[in-house]
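For the sake of transparency, this paper describes our internal protein records without simplification. The tokens are whole numbers drawn from a learned vocabulary of local backbone shapes. One such record is reproduced below, unchanged from the form in which we store it.

. . .
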Amino acid sequence: MQPFSQLRDSEEEPEFAAVGTKDPLQEVEQKERIQHVREALARLPEEQRAVVILHRYQGLSYQEIAETLGISLAAVESRLHRAKLKLANLLAPYIRGAER
């Protein structure tokens, strides 16, 4: 990578990843994605939101979730399935917009 002072004389663009930072546009897009997911999670019923957070963000297995919440393994599977369907529905407008 060339020093910044030499870039103005060349056609090359600075490489953001090479200096340990992301492209500013990528950072904005990532923050938007995170915000959309947070908003969608907040709209889930509490029992669905709990299993999603425990599984996806806390890394618990289905069995560990069942033990933690005091519910059956089948209930964990059912709640996760319904949560995934609802999240897909809630995030569909954002996903369709991002594909354009």
User: Anything to note?
Assistant: The CA atoms of residues 17 and 23 lie 7 Å apart. The chain has one domain: 24-99. DSSP finds five helices and no strands in the chain. The mean pLDDT is 82.
